[in-house]
Amino acid sequence: MISNKMKEQVQSSSIIRAMFEEGKRLAEIHGAENVFDFSLGNPSVEPPEDVKKAILEILNTESTTKIHGYMNNSGYEDVRATIADSINDKFGTAFGQKNILMTVGAAGGINVILKTLLNPGDEVITFAPFFGEYRNYVNNFEGQLFVVSPNTLDFQPNLEEFKQKITPKTKVIIINSPNNPTGVVYSEETILNMADILREKQKEFGTDIYLFSDEPYRELAYDHVKVPYVTKYYENTIIGYSFSKSLSLPGERIGYLVIPDQAADFENILIAANIANRTLGYVNAPSLFQRVVAKCLNAKVDVETYNKNRELFYNGLLSYGYQCIKPEGAFYLFIKTPLDNDVEFCNLAKQKNILIVPGTAFGCPGYARIAYCVAYKTIENALPGFKALIEDLR
Amino acid sequence: MISNKMKEQVQSSSIIRAMFEEGKRLAEIHGAENVFDFSLGNPSVEPPEDVKKAILEILNTESTTKIHGYMNNSGYEDVRATIADSINDKFGTAFGQKNILMTVGAAGGINVILKTLLNPGDEVITFAPFFGEYRNYVNNFEGQLFVVSPNTLDFQPNLEEFKQKITPKTKVIIINSPNNPTGVVYSEETILNMADILREKQKEFGTDIYLFSDEPYRELAYDHVKVPYVTKYYENTIIGYSFSKSLSLPGERIGYLVIPDQAADFENILIAANIANRTLGYVNAPSLFQRVVAKCLNAKVDVETYNKNRELFYNGLLSYGYQCIKPEGAFYLFIKTPLDNDVEFCNLAKQKNILIVPGTAFGCPGYARIAYCVAYKTIENALPGFKALIEDLR
């Protein structure tokens, strides 16, 4: 009785679900402490103390009907103004509260924008490897997703192929930097070149092409790498942000969209996005956590903990002979699988109680994603298994 | 540049948005205290003390990565089990945790179910007057909404017309009791007869027809009226619940679906609804408030406050000559407008600084909705305006 679209989604979700079931099965046999689950991007670092402080302060000083009540579907005006100011301080932009729309996480934000912009058949382009959910989000609105093949040299986007994939029906480009699954940060040069291509194609086709920058990992960057603020490079940019990783609040579903004045048809997009937020059934971003994040804009999880995991894992894997780009952000390593068949390799890993996700799930076969948002000890304990795994294959 | 669907939604939202703007404009001219806004269903009664207690207890006793982290997309297992037990205690049902799916409010729940069930062109039936958002929700999944015309005698559903509207393409029926906008509770007789009709039609067409019962107002019932628990009357029932009104938490977006074992294709619906919750971009219901509501299942806002508003407003309006069914639930009065043209009447009301919503917005012209979830004093101060309004029209 379920819909055809959901039949497809159930089918395509079954690999990851099977892995989840397998993880539970392994944990029952071997004990949870002997199963090394690197399959999920669930932050392991505690939220900063400021979060709890903010909750208590709000509960003790604000009216409960305000804290938990309805507000404008776009979010509390004061929260949006505070966020705009904070972005302006950090990046030298000039946003006001009207440019900010509070969303149910980054996933809520991207759905709001795709509903706002896409007519059935409109084309969306993203770059492999990419977060597999984009396919479902685009499909929610009958858009067509086109994927630029991966540049496995350094995992910066393949801009030559990108240029060729843009057509008069291209409406939205989705980028994600720091990237899930590679951890790569798209460089300023990449963004500059991408903006040039988009402007050229807009002119050629007489269209507007929106660049959607999905930025849940913005704050998780290492080695002082610069993560370009994309609105400064291209007018038709819309940013999707989430506090899931920066404040370790993934379950709370809190994020925002930045819709700049410079974006084509700005006024209508604002009105439509506000309504789409409502009619998609989100109604508004969760109210208490809107107020909480506004008080925590200078707080951040302890990124050094992730950094230590990164160093340990990356150096360990390299010493065993694995090939991997050193990630500059997020909390993922994207290794080249020693077997060409990444699904088969991940199955072999499972036999050593190691759970990692085949690159195929991200449109990039021959690779695998390792989420290192886990306890340091888990990595230490798992490394011998990774060593044995590659040695078995020699 | 916005999508055609959103152009339509912007258009159809403009009446209510215009009212909102008008309210702000009037408040600036006359002062907020002299504008009587009965247009919004935003709870005025404080959440029960248990809510704050629960938040503090959770913050002080549970791990922060658990409180704010990802869980199964359907929600925390312990929360779902607690909710199932509570429903079983209250209604003599036999649900387990697997039957409960935590959602981003009732709006999130209904969207999850419609995505799970509807193929493009599938038919959905609801009963006027009805919550206008149903139209947008059904439209999200390319369903077709058919509306049974209102029975203005007592606002119980018109079951004769309902029977005629069911076709082999009918997939979902949406009911809402206590009802927005009438405040009417659908009687046990109504539910029994509706169930008989549905079983008969299922047999005739060899189809499964799901009855979706949207129940955000379940706990707001007066005069000891019984609100039937619909799963007990019809196998293919799915319940959508929200804590928005029962605990005055509308901004927090927390509710759940009940999907009984008896529903046709139960197992697939469970799997698909879990995935739909994720792919629609909700991902999961907000985590802290999942844990909060599980501790507040026996708490309830002070319904007596709404009841006093109801009595004052209803008796006042009747004494001036207005016609209105006495509502048994929710926090709305649905008056027959003294002018046949309800939109015109609401415009006249605005001239007296009174904001109410035309019945046309609920598929029921000739009526108007008055939300009495406001301060008692606001009603007292507004009553002379209502009196003058009907006298002007004589």
Structure characterization notes:
2 copies of one chain form a homodimer. In chain A, helix 2 crosses helix 10. Chain A is built from 13 helices and 13 strands. In chain A, the strands form 3 sheets. Chain A has a 7-stranded mixed β-sheet, with helices on both faces. Chain A has a 4-stranded antiparallel β-sheet with strand order 9-10-13-12, with helices on one face. Chain A has 394 residues and is of the alpha/beta class. Chain A folds into 2 domains: 135 residues, Aspartate Aminotransferase, domain 1 (Alpha-Beta Complex), CATH 3.90.1150; 246 residues, Aspartate Aminotransferase, domain 2, CATH 3.40.640. Chain A is globular, with a radius of gyration of 21 Å. The N and C termini of chain A lie far apart (49 Å). The longest helix of chain A has 27 residues.
